[in-house]
Structures are given as structure tokens and as C-alpha cells.
Amino acid sequence: MGRIIALLLIIFGLVKGASSPLVFETLVTPLQESAASIEQLSRKPIMKPNQQLLRNFLSGVETTLVIGQELSGAKEIDKQVLKSYLKDLRELSHTKESIDQLYRKTLDTAMAQSDKTSFEDLVSVSLEPLHHPRIRSEVIAFYQKNYPNHSLKSVEALCDEQELEEKSIQTAIDQEQAYEEHLRILKRSEVSAIKKTAQIGSRNSVMVSAEPTAEGGFVFEAENVNPYTVTMSIDFEILNNLKASEKLPLFVEIPGKTKKKVLELSRISSMNGINYRSSYGWVRGSAFAVHQDDYLYKLPFAKGSDVFVSQGYNGETSHKGLSAYAVDFPVPVGTPVYAAREGTVVGAESRNNLGGTSAEYRQYANYVIIEHSDGTMGNYYHLKQGGVAVAIGQKVMRGDLLGYSGNTGYSSGPHLHFSVSKVDPISMRRPMNLPIKLQTLQGIVTLPHKGDRYTVQ
């Protein structure tokens, strides 16, 4: 609903004073791209009871596309027709969500009942829910259990997608040194000495200490010296005669430059001895962040410039799975890069001058990472050597200069890789990209694809 209202306001503003043509039919493009898969789905026997719902959606997309084309070609916009057009778009979007839910439920039922015929019919249709990490993992697990000969090309493609994502995630973790695990719990007296030598992003930039209590238990306190939020985990291999105050393993968010009590162990019996063995880990970012979905991100380039997309959401090469929601903009080396959203600089690297198409170059990417007010991270990658214009801890406003584009790291050519991410709340250690809204002169973009061209507003 918020997106439709924003679209309505922007479109009416453009109608009132725009000199450039208005391409209204592009608003139905995301639904049109789903129509081919839904057409396939409508032919499957298992979907026969819901065939009318699917057919109504397909018919609605065709009709709405025609109306959008008529609006784009009109010399004057009939506001009543436009209002009806946007209402139809909203209803079609709700129908698409219902179809996705129906698809997920039907697929779950097929796997629960070991109905291989229905399973094969459903996974042969590449609807968006099939690429959700949890659903994809469940599909692959069912497939590996019930298809020892690996005979389904559609699921084999999902396996490849998952493998690529896992490699990409591990690379991000290795490259950014974002995750540390199996760290030792400190004594309270050790914290001061460790803190003096802790560098931003280093292993001990997040410290956990334990202090005995008068009742025979322990209180655990975490301190994060980094300027950014981290998600910390703590668990116990041994816990004798002690009861934890929180469910284990414990995952907790620690804001930047803060310390907080995270856990208490209470003694169960005063008659018996106590013992524990524990470790903790942390990852940059918050798994508990709630993205501000109505925020309109600026294209990260100079106002008035034209850019196009070489790889968009669910791209052909690296934008898959948890990494699906990212955008690549091919721009010449040295192109100024601006903040798409205000926040605090929490990561920056500009020393590298190497780039290439093999995995060995991953560690050489230059970048800037911005933490936003909602706990998400804005990621700007492949900057040129010496091409970072900000410092860690610096506050930046929307539109401020961050640096200059380049071709460093794992890159097939000069471009800027841009994404917004949080910590995946399932694994609690992987980065997970989020879909966002991009503000352009052509209107709000919610589904950037390869070949799209935009003008920076």
C-alpha cells in the first residue's frame, strides 16, 4: 500500500510538470515477468482447483499492460484512468502474493506426502518462492533423499545456485573478516589490557567477560569497541550445575561502542560443584534489523547522469540466493560514488589495485560500507585504489561523496556493486541482501534488471 501511494504521488508530480515521456507500462513489468511462470503453473494438474485464480491474474496483467501503454501514449493524462490503473496494479500485486503463498503451501504438501509427481510439476516452474533460501534448502533435501540419480534439471540448477551462494557468502566472510568464532571468554580483569590493543574489526574488538556472583554463579558482559553493530553468539560445551538465564545458543545484538550484560548463569545446587566451558563469536551487522521498506534510495551517482544495469536482482552470475538483491552499474574507473542513504561509515578499504575474473582476486576489492539508522548496511564495492573519500566512524548524508569507482577485486570490468544487507536471521552469520526502492527520474524502481537504464534524480 505504501509503495502504491508513493508511486501515485510521484506520478502525479511528473504529470503536473514533466517534460519527458512517462512510460506507465513499465510499472507492470515485474508482474509481467512473473506471468510466464504462472502460465506454466496454470497447466499443471495439481493446480486445477485454483486455475481460475491463475487465469484471472494473467488476464489482468494483459489488460493492465494495454492501459499502461495507452497512458504512456496519451497527450494528456486522465487522472481517473490513472487512479484506476494504479488500483489495478495494487490488486494484481496482492493476487501475485496469494499465488506465491499457494505455490509454497502446495509444494510443502507434495513433499510432506512424498508426492513425486506433484513435486516434479511444481519445481519445473521457476516461481520466486522456489529461490527463497529456506524453501530451496527443503526442496534440495527432499530431492537428494528421493532422487538418488539426480534426474531433475530444475533442481540441479537450484543446487548450483545454492553452491554459488554459499561460496559467495564464505568469500564475503573471509574477505571482510566479518565473523570471528570460538573466542575465549575473558576475566573482567583482562578486559582493559585487551581493549587497549583491539583494532576495529579485529578478533578481540568484541569481548565477552565473566564475573562470579555472590550466589555462586556468573554474569557475562559483552563489549563492542567497533563503531558498528554486531550480532554475537555465545554457547556452552559444558554446563554443570549451572542454569542459563537465556535460551542457548544465545544470539544478541551489541550496538557499536557499547557494553551490556548479556547472560547470567545461576547455581542450581549449593551441594554440588560447578563447571562450564564456553565460546562466543560475532558478525558485523544486526540479524534483528528491520529494514525501512518505504525508504527511497538515491542512485549512487551524480544528479542528472544516466546509468544502466549490467546485473540486477537474481542476476545470471553472482546475484543468487541470499545475494540476489544487488545491482551492478558499469561505469568508468574514477566515476564519483555518492551515498544512497545517510548513515555511519563502518567499513572502508582503498589499498588494493588488483582485479580480475578469478576467485584469487576476491580479497583485493576496495569498498565502503555504511550502517543505516535501521541497522542495515549499504555496500559499495570495487572502488579504485585510493578511491575512498570517507573514514570509518564518519557520519554521511544522503548524496555525500563516498569515493570513486574502479575495477578491484573479483570483477569482470569497471563497475559499482551496490546492495543493502543485514545478517541472515536463519544462519545468524551470513550477510543477506534486501530488496530496496531506487528513486530515479523515471520513477520508483523496485525490480532492477539487466539492461535497464535510469537517470539519477
What tags apply to this protein structure?
alpha+beta, Immunoglobulin-like, Glucose Permease (Domain IIA), 3 domains, 7-stranded antiparallel sheet, disordered N terminus
The total tally of domains equals: 3
Mind describing the biggest β-sheet?
Answer: 7 strands, antiparallel
Mean pLDDT: 86
Supply the CATH superfamily name of the largest domain: Glucose Permease (Domain IIA)
Strand proportion, as a percent range, falls in 25-35%
CATH architecture of the largest domain: Distorted Sandwich
Which regions are unreliable across 5 or more consecutive residues at pLDDT < 50? Answer: 1-22
| Secondary structure tally: strands | 26
Query: What distance lies between the first and last C-alpha atoms, to the nearest angstrom?
Result: 23 Å
How is the quaternary structure best described?
single chain
The global form is globular
Radius of gyration: 25 Å
Q: Helical residue percent?
A: 25-40%
- Give the CATH class of the largest domain: Mainly Beta
Number of helices in the DSSP assignment:
8
Structural class: alpha+beta
CATH topology of the largest domain: Glucose Permease (Domain IIA)
